[in-house]
Every structure is written in structure tokens, then in C-alpha cells.
Specification:
By secondary structure, this protein is α+β, with helices and mostly antiparallel strands. It is built from seven helices and 13 strands. It has two domains: about 1-105, no CATH class; about 115-320, Immunoglobulin-like (Sandwich). The longest helix is centred in the N-terminal third of the chain and has 24 residues, at about 1-25.
């Protein structure tokens, strides 16, 4: 079948040309994604190859790297990047150079359409902090759980501040022995994580809590009353009381893996109602925002919501204007 063969060759040539282009000009996450796609390797296989090179990196981290939601910064992560150049048959220093050219952890720029309160640099710093806080709790970034459903209710107070939120998760274990979940809360700029509190509401109890002042990140261990086996489902609910920052203008949720339903409701104090609300999405923290859709504020309950039947990797949120 010469036509099929010619078509396949043309597709391969185009993919190779695209890879060559992004290796020269970047950005890093696009080049990494193109290189992995060109070799046809699933992330689990990439992780396996890294292990054989003596480097331990989770599938979740690899996914974040190729989305642009997180960047390799720590020494172990940079070792992984150099190993990836060999595994993916790339020229020496090609990926490392893209990291250096973009200025490392401090050189990120604000993506088009992003508000100053949630800059690309902020996401990068918060991601690095999350890795360190998870390490302190001795909990892997891969929790062993797949999310089937996640429903969040966020409260905005009379001073236009983020008062707090309540989350209900429905999960399924994909390995034996899972007995906890690490919840993450990102406060608004200027918040005080040391004044935030975590409440276990249903089918869990609060464990250790870690906070990072500069990025406003709080992580909390929620302990289950049972050890899940692979395939078991579980439902739990918890809340975070915040109210420590200034005026809030959006709520954003990041997803490192696709799948599961997500519902977000924002409820406003009756004495502080926004003039307009909208939903938005981003493929990654580095990408421009898209998927904008105006949301009508309900008259009785002063709330707006979104429902995503099956989430994709990236960011999803609701923003609002006060005047």
C-alpha cells in the first residue's frame, strides 16, 4: 500500500521537523511533550527508563513538566532532564539549555490573560513548594487514588475575601494499602496560612498539616479509617477555613491527570455581590486563558457554578469582577 506508506512517512517527517523546531526555540514543556510524542512512549515507560538510569521521578511530575504546570528545578529533577535527553535520543544539553534560556525558576513571565495574583511564576513556586511539603509528610505526589468526582463549595465574605471552602471527593484506589489523602489549599495573595484551619467532616480525620507563608500554600493529611484495596471506592469530605487575605477575584483548581467529574460553586455574601462572573480554562499555567463563558449569578442564593463532566489536565476556574 504505497499511499499509506507515503502518508506515514510524511507524518513522521512533519513530527521530526516540529521536534527540531521546538528544540531550538522552546519552550521547555512543549519540547519535552513533542519529544515524548515523537518516540511514542507512554509516561509510565518514560518513568521506567528513568528508574533504570537511577533517577526517581513520578508520572505525575512528568505530566506536569510536559504541560508547563511545573518545571524541573531541584538537583534530582535536573538529573532526570539530562537522562531524558538520552532516553528520548535528543542532542546533549538540548532540554537543559531550554530551561536555562527561560531563566530557571525565576525567569517565568506572566502569560497573556493571567491576572497578577496568579502568575506563571507563582504556579512554578507553588509547585516546587508542594513537592517539598509532600516530601516532609513522606507522601508521594501519586496518592494511589483516581478521582471519580470532586465537588467544591467556596464562600466569599462580606469583605470580598475568600472565607473558606468545602470539598467532597469520590475516589477509587489503584493500588493496595491507600489510607490517606493529602489536601492542598492555595490562599489568595497576602494570606496567612498559619491562621487557616482544616476540618475533617466525613469519613476522615485530620492528620499533619504543613504551611508555606510566601506562596500561601497549605497541605493537610486526611486519614481514612480503613486501608483501601485496589479497585475500592471511597467518599470523604473536609473543609478549610481561610479568611486571611484581601479582596478575592477568582478561584482556580489545577488538574494533573484527566478523568472524573468536577463541580465548583462560588457563593457570595449578600452584602458583597460581584457585577459579573465567568468561567475559564488553561491547558497549563504557561498557556493563555480560554474557554471563557459568562455565568449568571443566582438571585436567591447569590452563587455561580460550573460542572465539568470529565476534567482534562490543566487549570479550571471561575473569576469575577467587583465593579
Amino acid at each position: 500500500m504505497p499511499h499509506a506508506t507515503q502518508h506515514a512517512d510524511a507524518v513522521e517527517d512533519a513530527a521530526t521537523a516540529e521536534l527540531d523546531t521546538v528544540l531550538r526555540g522552546g519552550p521547555f514543556h512543549v519540547a519535552l511533550r513533542a519529544a515524548i510524542a515523537a518516540r511514542g512512549l507512554p509516561l509510565q515507560r518514560v518513568q521506567h527508563h528513568l528508574t533504570r538510569h537511577g533517577v526517581k521521578v513520578g508520572v505525575t511530575s512528568l505530566s506536569y513538566w510536559q504541560q508547563g504546570a511545573r518545571r524541573p528545578q531541584r538537583p534530582e529533577s535536573l538529573r532526570a532532564v539530562r537522562a531524558l535527553e538520552e532516553i528520548l535520543h535528543l542532542p546533549d544539553e538540548s532540554l537543559i539549555r531550554l530551561l536555562e534560556d527561560s531563566g530557571g525558576s525565576g525567569g517565568a513571565v506572566l502569560a497573556a490573560g493571567q491576572p497578577a495574583g496568579r502568575s506563571y511564576r507563582w504556579f512554578l513556586e507553588a509547585s516546587d513548594v508542594l513537592e517539598r511539603l509532600h516530601a516532609e509528610l513522606e507522601c508521594p505526589l501519586d496518592s494511589g487514588l483516581h478521582t471519580l468526582g470532586h465537588h467544591e463549595r467556596v464562600r466569599i465574605g462580606a469583605r470580598r475575601e475568600l472565607l473558606g471552602r468545602e470539598s467532597q471527593h469520590i475516589v477509587r484506589a489503584h493500588r493496595d494499602g491507600v489510607d490517606r489523602f493529602v489536601a492542598v489549599h492555595h490562599g489568595d495573595p497576602g494570606c496567612a496560612p498559619d491562621r487557616m484551619t482544616v476540618h475533617a467532616l466525613e469519613n476522615c480525620r485530620a492528620g499533619r498539616v504543613r504551611r508555606h507563608q510566601d506562596t500561601g500554600v497549605l497541605v493537610a493529611e486526611l486519614l481514612f479509617d480503613t486501608r483501601l484495596r485496589a479497585g475500592d471506592t471511597f467518599l470523604f469530605r473536609y473543609a478549610v477555613e481561610d479568611g486571611t487575605a484581601g479582596v478575592s477575584r477568582e478561584y482556580v483548581r489545577g488538574f494533573g491527570a484527566a478523568g472524573g467529574q468536577y463541580a465548583l460553586q462560588i457563593r457570595f455574601d449578600e452584602h458583597a455581590l460581584p457585577v459579573r462572573c465567568h468561567r475559564f480554562s488553561q491547558h497549563s499555567a504557561a498557556a493563555p486563558r480560554g474557554g471563557r463563558q459568562e455565568l449568571a449569578l443566582s438571585g436567591r442564593h447569590h452563587s455561580v457554578h460550573l460542572v465539568e463532566p470529565r476534567v482534562r489536565t490543566g487549570l479550571l476556574g471561575i473569576g469575577w469582577d467587583w465593579e
